[in-house]
Amino acid sequence: MSSRRSRASVSEEEINELIARLQTLLPSARRRGGSHASTTKLLKETCSYIKSLHREVDDLSDRLSDLMATMDHNSPAAEIIRSLLR
Question: What does the alpha-carbon distance between residue 57 and residue 40 come to, in Å, rounded to a whole number?
Fold first, then answer.
């Protein structure tokens, strides 16, 4: 028995639109202005940017944990931080 997966049909125009939208989200692409990078380069930059965002989130999470560990847990500042994290 062979099984076939149904694939969503995406037109080349839709792909180009998505690539253009993706390019507007990358800081490196915004610095280039109107020039277009190859799709391969854009996808590599996207992966790199996402990895850097993950590292930044991890770093900020570690810093916040360190800060919370040194705070009085009943202080108004600690309560504000807890409310922001909810």
Answer: 26
- DSSP secondary structure letter of residue 3: -
pTM (global) more than 0.85: no
Tokens of 56: 């930044």
C-alpha span between 68 and 30 (Å, rounded): 36
- Report pLDDT digits (tens) over 20-45: 899 889 988 766 665 667 889 999 99
The tokens for 4 are 């076939």
Cβ(36)–Cβ(23) under 8 Å? yes
Continuous H helices in 1-86: 12-25, 27-32, 39-70, 76-85
Q: Where are the domains of the chain?
A: 38-86
